[in-house]
Design brief:
- The chain is built from 14 helices and 13 strands.
- The protein has a domain of 240 residues: Aldolase class I (TIM Barrel), CATH 3.20.20.70.
- It is of the alpha/beta class.
- The radius of gyration is 23 Å and the shape is globular.
- Helix 6 runs parallel beside helix 7.
- Strands 9-10-11-12 form a four-stranded parallel β-sheet. A three-stranded parallel β-sheet has the order 4-7-8, covered by helices on one side. The chain has a two-stranded antiparallel sheet with strand order 1-2.
- The longest helix is centred in the middle third of the chain and has 22 residues.
- Bound molecules: iron/sulfur cluster.
- Iron/sulfur cluster binds next to helix 14.
């Protein structure tokens, strides 16, 4: 396998330098940004598995990028800026895809689909087109503050209500500010009330545990939030069969995000907080039975953290784990934390680094990170300042979404020659909608 960059390590294990080792190899690898999504309306004819799959649906990506600025989110950071597909291209992709595949569900995908500037028009037009057929619409995990009554109505127009998932990510207002997830408890309660009042009986809420600066009470606040969600649902509907599922995973710091310098929370601390949260939910007589609780242990996240922020020395750890029998580690019945600990100790024995060094260690500003030569356009100093703003002693400072506020100079647009591309286009021909109206019932 040819290597185009040499890595020089310092005596303490940190990277001293990354240098190209061949003539003509640039100092960094730059990402490419597709600016005209309408020119690439793919997939057109996706393969339809003969076996049952987890997501039985035709997926259309309605926009790329996200500038909400969640500090944990690698996808949001590295895919900037926002570029929307037009309502007409979305419509023709849905029509062609449903015809080609026969799927009865269409997923409108993106990093935050409800943020598309014409999401209401898309949902209404598609629901109109497929009225009376068995084709339904779904959105992936939806921002709490972007869901609305129109979406609720259109997503359930055919009587189908696919899963509704929201991701507040943090239980307390304080921790949501740290991660720049600017949704309030009122936003969440308003949103779930809309959903329950529109006929949903169950919503799923995603959270993370082990976030930077997190304290026990931030995680326990999830229990309070879940109780209020159930209470709001019961009040909105007058029913007792309202349910919500709290799904929680351990936070893993990712490259190219403001949290790339953060120390990862030790697995034992994550497990302890999750145990306390589970106990708080179970002990609640009034609401406990209405709240489902799903979580992952902290240990697999440490291995994820090793792979997430490792350098090329971690390749030896992976090889050692594989030689020792590691397979399908994402499945808990195959996962062995002890195997990974032993493999790391074996493979890194000659180096001044270990598993903790890669995971639970906080990095300093001047440390060269293993991915620094991969250029996603983000200004390193902006990322660092955002990290400092997140953990500021007086409380985190938040960043707005540059789709709707002035550019705050994260660096991507000037570095990559790109710009934010959003509608609404508001385009109509002779007052008619631009989504293709199907004449064959959508089949
Ligand atoms: S450069 Fe400015 S407009 Fe472009 S993504 Fe960054 S903050 Fe937004």
């Amino acid at each position: 396998m040819p290597r185009f960059y040499d890595v020089h390590y310092l005596p303490d294990g940190r990277i001293g330098q990354v240098v190209p080792n061949r003539p003509g190899v640039p100092l960094s690898v730059r990402k490419h940004t597709l600016m005209d999504l309408d020119a690439w309306p793919y997939p057109r004819r996706p393969v339809v598995p003969v076996a049952e799959t987890v997501h039985e649906r035709y997926s259309v990506e309605i926009f790329r990028g996200c500038t909400r600025g969640c500090r944990f989110c690698q996808a949001g950071m590295i895919t900037r800026p926002v570029r929307e597909r037009s309502i007409t291209t979305v419509g023709s992709m849905v029509a062609g895809g449903v015809r080609a595949t026969g799927f009865a569900e269409v997923g409108l995908l993106s990093l935050s689909s409800a943020d598309h500037s014409e999401i209401n028009e898309i949902a209404v037009d598609l629901a109109d087109c497929y009225e009376g057929t068995n084709t339904g619409l779904s959105l992936p995990s939806t921002r709490v503050d972007a869901f609305n009554v129109t979406l609720a109505n259109e997503l359930s127009r055919n009587g189908r209500r696919s899963g509704l998932t929201f991701a507040p990510e943090g239980g307390s207002e304080r921790i949501r500010k740290v991660i720049n997830k600017m949704v309030t408890e009122d936003d969440l309660l308003r949103t779930v009330t809309t959903a329950y009042a529109s006929g949903w009986r169950q919503v799923k809420l995603y959270f993370m545990c082990g976030l930077p600066t997190e304290r026990d009470e931030d995680v326990l606040a999830i229990a309070d939030l879940a109780r209020r969600v159930i209470a709001a649902g019961r009040e909105a509907t007058g029913r007792r069969d309202i349910k919500c599922t709290v799904s929680i995973g351990a936070f893993v710091p990712k490259p190219h995000t403001p949290f790339q310098w953060a120390s990862q929370c030790p697995a034992g601390v994550v497990d302890e907080r999750l145990r306390a949260l589970g106990a708080a939910l179970r002990s609640d007589r009034a609401y406990g039975r209405s709240i489902g609780f799903r979580y992952h242990d902290g240990a697999p996240s440490i291995v994820e953290g090793l792979l997430s922020r490792g350098d090329r020395r971690v390749g030896r750890v992976i090889l050692a784990a594989w030689r020792d029998g590691a397979r399908f580690d994402g499945w808990s019945e195959y996962f062995s934390y002890e195997r990974w600990v032993a493999s790391a100790a074996l493979a890194l024995a000659g180096d001044p680094v270990d598993l903790d060094w890669y995971t639970t260690r906080e990095r300093e500003y001047d440390e060269i990170l293993p991915w620094d030569h991969l250029d996603s356009g983000l200004d390193r100093d902006w990322l660092w300042q955002d990290w400092q703003d997140a953990v500021a002693a007086g409380g985190a400072a938040e960043v707005e979404d540059c789709r709707w506020t002035p550019c705050y100079e994260c660096g991507v647009c000037p570095a990559m020659g790109t710009e934010i591309q959003t509608g609404p286009t508001g385009e109509r021909i002779d007052g008619k909608r631009l989504l293709p109206v199907l004449t064959d019932g959508g089949r």
